[in-house]
Structure formats: structure tokens, C-alpha cells
# Entry
Amino acid sequence: MKKSLDVQQTDRTKKQQKRVPQITTRLEQIEKVLDKLYEDNALGTIEQDRYEQMSQKYSEEYYTLKTELAEIKEQLSAFENAGGRAQRFVKLTERYADFAELTPAILNEFISKIEVHERDQKRARYAIQHIGIYFNHIGRFENELTQLTEPTEQEIIQMREEIEEAKKEKSRAYHREYSRAYRARNIEKQREYDRIKAREYRARKKAQATASAQ
# Structure
């Protein structure tokens, strides 16, 4: 789990980090060009139309790059914050790696909230119901093992058929067990009845023999 939680720099992040000095250098170049254009315009060494055309071109590039730079810095900051949160969560897992009992206090340290979504069919006897678990520091953690895939209609039908078949088999097993127990009880009752009748028969025979002897 620790390996999954360790935040690795993606190719996109590496490209963004390389892009920052490129943008910064280009912004400095544009500022120098604009300063020169302003100076030439003030001195009258450049035609007004040419000045406006060049000024607009470089200004548009300048503000486009400024916007891109701000977005990259924001994304890199979020990436660094995510890495810090992941590291804090890893330390938490290490602290409780050998716990003997899962207590409410431990659960509260790990889990921030649990979302129970509505059933896909409200009046259905059996329905799919998603549950989202959000951890402290990292939020809702999912990877290739935990990622949920929305079941298809055919899979839902198959699932319900399997549930119904399992219930029927459970019912059949119960009736088989009940029948065996019922037969066993009846056999024992029959044996007890036979023993009683045998004792009564022996008692009558003994009484008859005694009467004949007198």
C-alpha cells in the first residue's frame, strides 16, 4: 500500500517543471522587446501602425504566457501538497502497522467520512449500492485494485439470478436438513413405541403364565 501511496512525478509534472524557466525566460525577452518598442514609438523611429501591430502581438503572447505560468505554478503547488498529504498518510499507516484491535479511535484517524449512495433501484429486493470511503490526508483512494467499474445491465441481471439461486439452494438445504431431522425423530419415536409395546407384551405374557400356574 505504501508503494501505491508514494507520489511519483508524472511525465506531465516533469514537463511542467521544465516549462517554468522557459516561460520565465521568454517573458523577460518580451518585456525587453516591448520596452524597445515603447522607446522607438516615443522617439518617433517606428511607424505608428507598425508599433501598434508589434505591440499587440507581443502583448498577447506576454499575457498568454503569464496565464500559462500561473496555471503551472498552481498545479505544481497542488502536486507538492498532495505529496505531503500522502507522506502523512504513509506515516499513519506505519504507526498502526501492527495494531492488535481495530478501535473507533484508529478508524477516526484513518477515515474522514463515508458516503452511502442510493440504491440503483429503490423498490428492488436486491440492488447495487455504492459506498465511498474517504481517508484523512488523501481523500478517496483508488487504484487498479479498488477502482469500481459500473456493472452492465447483463451483469446486474446475472448477479440477481445468482443471489436468487443461492437463496433457493439455502432453502433446499434447510428443507433437506429438516427432513433428515424429522425422519430421525420419527424413527426414534417408532423405536420407543416398539419398546413400550414389547414391555407390555412381556408383562401380559408373564401375567398369563402366573394365572395359569395358580
